From TrEMBL, chains A, B:
Catalyzes the conversion of L-aspartate-beta-semialdehyde (L-Asa) to L-homoserine (L-Hse), the third step in the biosynthesis of threonine and methionine from aspartate. It is an enzyme of class 1 (oxidoreductase). Pathway: Amino-acid biosynthesis; L-methionine biosynthesis via de novo pathway; L-homoserine from L-aspartate: step 3/3; Amino-acid biosynthesis; L-threonine biosynthesis; L-threonine from L-aspartate: step 3/5. This is Homoserine dehydrogenase. L-homoserine binds at E192. It comes from Streptomyces griseoviridis. Its cofactor is a metal cation. Transmembrane segments: none annotated. NADP(+) binds at L12, G13, C14, G15, V16, V17, G18, S19. NCBIfam families: PRK06349.1. GO terms for biological process: methionine biosynthetic process; threonine biosynthetic process.
């Protein structure tokens, strides 16, 4: 049975995502009403530039006073697609205080202040949903939070930033350097004018914090996530990767330690085997592997950004939140009961690919191998290439802690025969 | 805040899946309680053979009287993992009548009687969840029903039967014939003693009916699904597929017609390009592509069967249903409001790969081409191979309706110069 009084939706932000949300709310109004059990009505749209023409949005709904809009008191759901920390945070908090539930696509805010926002939602008996904050249209938050609620997640490993994947894919397929590939990404609109948030891994780190928090039922703050960008990945690194049957991806990795008592979260470039399904994720697509006790390995793949895909995720949340309101219920809130320790990067255990420039004389390999052994880092393979008194040494290790590897590299730098450490890259996905 | 009175769960069936459900309920009791907000208690286990030892299940909980168990009146959730139509259907209906919600893994029953069961759940204000019925551990029902609730799904295309994928993968990688590959699947436990339900596509058809119903908000009955098994796929078909840069998979395909007013659902073997992500799904794994207006292309991948993966899906549903009970709410029920026409197979539009044995004399190709043209089927490529007065002709068409193709083939068979139609296979995934 259909309720006739519509649920009122306030839209904060009307850029690439917001305008798409408004468009779908209009064009799919009948479908949305049927799926929710009541019609929904766009009650107001808060924007920064009111003069701009916005197709399909009645001008009388447009306001620059977002605060007044969320304070109206008759708003059922606030959709926040402004991004950034402020004013988004204050607006969301105010929305809860005035009885609205919130759907947000704001990864930076959720990663930084998720706990406080969830608390505010809980205090007022309202929902906070944010599927769109991680990996665009790909259902990931809901599967982790609900489908796997009866399972134990051990690892989340994925490509969660389309811009960097586009750049790395370009470097891999054309042999281009980082700057050249970035320029192409910028020209095609895949990278922003200031690409820092993407290429330095800030965006992926925010998503890693959100995913780790949900996967491990533990509060994981942005500061807990180790972060390394991909601006120093070179064509030479890709050549080394290919020699190992690998490619290079910027990965977000959230892991439960083998003993189960602690977790880690990190973002960095890494080599992964070409046979790994993540290796074939092309262009700006995203893909996330989830490994759990009972389900085993699951993969979720799709467009990680863009107006329409992000709007799809926002609208899925909007339908759920509206249904909850009609039911007088709320969906799952923050689940941080496990409160596991978030360990520092030094505790992470993985494999490493290290390129050294060394003197081309007898005994160097023995010296280098001794340093690895002294730090408890076991060597899998070594490849030596000599030329004109200089040589390069490529070492691939077995699994070792990041702290041991760091100690090894510091000691290697002190060897007279080691001229330099050309690159260190982690090897994942095995 | 944790409620202390436990929610009571009755388990119907204690085979491969049921025993795993019981095990996880015990080993992960504290986690499940934290995630639900109340402890859950295994209140009874209905089995056929009570004498069998069941590790971890207190003997006093075991009963052969499933009906009495669901009628007890104090059961909050019934988990049905018996399979088949009866007694599962009666037990589920009785469970609703006595106030329980139901989690089921029963694809055959859901495909055949989903509408009636949903109606019974609705009438009594209870939940009916069945993530485990399709593609084992892979979250698929929930993403379609909830994550994409604000989007318009146009196509669901996937590998939803692990047994047949194992057999086809084996044929592809080793050149084995169907019987040899089936024997290996049976020996390894991937195929049952009577493999009919898998190899004839009945299992996949049931899943297609369920997926189509949810994706298109339309009731799709098992009888509405066109079904063709994979027992007649030959090593020669794989050779033909490779010539086209394709492999062969048994696909479940649910599509909205281009005009949007009707849908189709079908299961059959098909050639797909090696570059398509579904082509690289190996062994008994499942993977499903979902294409929608706003989200674009999404893929979900994982283990499609097995005790633990299926139990993961069952437990995810169990947590959701228990949470709903605590909230006094219910989750999304059947959504069939769109009530689109389910069109017959003749209306399906796709491409075809046809191998003909023909007389090796001038004019045959012209004759054959004329028949295609007369039926409005446009030819993409023709390959002709002659030998000793006999020749084979391989025709790949552009997109045409199944009815047109059937008419074409009937007319081809009547040509004197056509000795036989060696194989007809659809070409998908482009």
């Amino acid at each position: 049975m259909m309720r006739t009084r519509p649920l009122k939706v306030a839209l904060l932000g009307c850029g690439v995502v917001g305008s798409e949300v408004a468009r779908i709310m209009t064009t799919h109004a009948a479908d949305l009403a049927a799926r929710i059990g009541a019609p929904i009505e766009l009650a107001g749209v808060a924007v920064r530039r009111p003069g701009k023409a916005r197709e399909g949005i009645p001008p009388e709904l447009v306001t620059t006073d977002a605060t007044a809009l969320v304070k109206r008191g008759d708003i059922d759901v606030v959709v926040e697609v402004i991004g950034g920390i402020e004013p988004a945070r204050s607006l969301i908090t105010t929305a809860f205080e005035h009885g609205a539930s919130v759907v947000s696509a704001n990864k930076a805010l959720l990663a930084q202040d998720g706990a406080a926002l969830h608390a505010a939602a809980g205090e007022h008996g309202r929902d906070l949903y944010y599927e769109a904050a991680v990996a665009g249209a790909i259902p990931l938050i809901r599967p982790l939070r609900e489908s796997l609620a009866g399972d134990k997640v051990n690892r989340v490993l994925g490509i969660v930033n389309g811009t960097t994947n586009f750049i790395l894919d370009k470097m891999d397929s054309t042999g281009a350097g980082y700057q050249e590939a970035l320029d192409e990404a910028t020209a095609l609109g895949y990278a922003e004018a200031d690409p820092t948030a993407d290429v330095e891994g800030f965006d992926a780190a925010a998503k890693a914090a959100i995913l780790a928090g949900i996967a491990f039922h533990t509060r994981v703050r942005l500061d807990d996530v180790y972060r390394e960008g991909m601006t120093e990945v070179t064509a030479a690194d890709f050549a080394s990767a290919r020699n190992m049957g690998c490619t290079i991806k910027l990965l977000a990795i959230c892991e439960r330690a083998a003993d189960g008592g602690s977790v880690t979260a990190r973002v960095h470039p890494a080599m992964i085997p070409l046979t790994h399904p993540l290796a074939s994720v092309r262009g700006a697509y995203n893909a996330v592997f989830v490994e759990s006790d009972a389900a085993g390995q699951l993969m979720f793949y799709g467009p990680g950004a863009g107006g329409a895909p992000t709007a799809s995720a926002v609208l899925g949340d909007l339908v759920a939140v509206c249904r909850n309101r009609l039911n007088g219920a709320t969906g799952p809130g923050e689940s941080a009961y496990a409160a596991l320790t978030v360990s520092p990067m030094g505790d992470v255990v993985t494999r490493y690919h290290i390129s050294l420039d060394v003197a081309d004389k007898p005994g160097v390999l023995a010296q280098v191998a001794t340093v690895f052994a002294e730090h408890g880092v076991s060597i899998d393979t070594v490849r030596q290439k000599g030329k004109d008194g200089e040589a390069s040494l490529v070492v691939v290790t077995h699994r070792a802690s990041d702290a041991s590897l760091t100690g090894t590299v510091e000691a290697l730098r002190k060897l007279d025969t080691v001229r330099g450490v050309a690159s260190i890259m982690r090897v994942e996905g095995e």
